[in-house]
Write a structure and sequence with these properties.
12 helices; binds pyridoxal-5'-phosphate; TIM Barrel; Lyase, Ornithine Decarboxylase, Chain A, domain 1; nine-stranded mixed β-sheet; globular; alpha/beta
Length: 421
Amino acid sequence: MPNFSMRDEIFFRAAEQFPTPFHLYDERGIRERARILNRAFSWCHDFREYFAVKALPNPTVLRILKEEGCGLDCSSSTELTLAKACGFSGEEVILSANAMPPEEFAQARALNAFINLDDISDIELLRTHGGFPECVCLRYNPGGHFSIGNTIMGNPGEAKYGFTLPQLKEGLEILKAAGVRAFGLHAFLSSNTTDNAYYPNLARTLLELGKELAAESGMRFAFVDLSGGIGIPYRPEEKAPDVLAIGESVRKVYDELIPDRSVGIKTELGRWMTGPMGWLVTHAVHEKKIYRHYIGVDASAVNLMRPAMYGAYHHITVCGKRDLPADQIYDITGSLCENNDKFAIERALPEIRIGDLLVIHDTGAHGYSMGYNYNGRLRSAEILYTREGDFRMIRRAETAADYFATLDVDPAAEALGVRRK
Ligand SMILES: *Cc1c(COP(=O)(O)O)cnc(C)c1O
């Protein structure tokens, strides 16, 4: 089930201090997750989690994760800039490429970050933009379907990422000829999976393949990067994955295949790390009864796009009414001129009054960061519920001036409140 550990009283207190909507993050919970993950892989002398920055690109959160021993997985120039500004460098950063401007390789090399190449053509780009490090990571795409038992977990054959097996072999030859000594292997074959078998299966695939490629190429097999994909239970009836058990299952596979323990392990979890530790807090501001019963809230898909984009389920509670019967059926909507701007569709909830405080759960990953500005709606603030039990604004809400800032080239700039270039 979703994370119900935060009491309604905390949301009420936060909403007294800050105007809604806002995302609220639980510092203690984020630290605890990092510690659980590190404990799960503590048997591996060379383990590091590289938090996927795109999931929650807030510097305060990134610094918290740094304190907990995590690195960062970046996929763009701005994410690399953020990593550097938060004090990450060298082995604490990995750049995962995908059809990116080649200058970003050079930027990552200047940080001395690990480079995870996505395509055989990236090898030439890296050569000419920053040059090769001693160890290069390659992303593998096995094609077809990725199954565990009879269950299809993912569809790599349709995914834009990674090298085919023949390309991996050819790529390693090119890299070896260029003086690269060691390689890592990366794959991301299943997203948001709560199945404990995912990581151990992926580890087996990558460890077996890495051994084979090392024997063939004569290069050192330095690490596997199991990437992201461990999911969270968005729905009340779903079960959370057991990360300690996952770590133990990966250990068994690892000890079987790598008895000399010479291969490191990296992960790039985003969703599992912070997803359940964030909530979008919003007020009911409108009620409408036509063919359905609508409650309009002051948040919209601009603040949380997953329901509109994927039809994703996010649990919703009404503060102070958790124990009341869910005997009403509502669509919970934002204000966008777009009918998919609905946080919930035909959802059973307790009776909602205008002014009620609603909490949308599990917004701590791929929530704020997926935001956009449709309809001229503005992104919200981000608030940290600190270890000490108080609230700290770690990003202010956007203002109209932020929205207009790039119109400094327009004759109306001054009328919009921005200085004309
Ligand atoms: C998005 C992404 C992740 C994180 O995925 P989650 O589903 O949040 O765990 C990790 N690695 C790469 C390369 C990604 O693109």
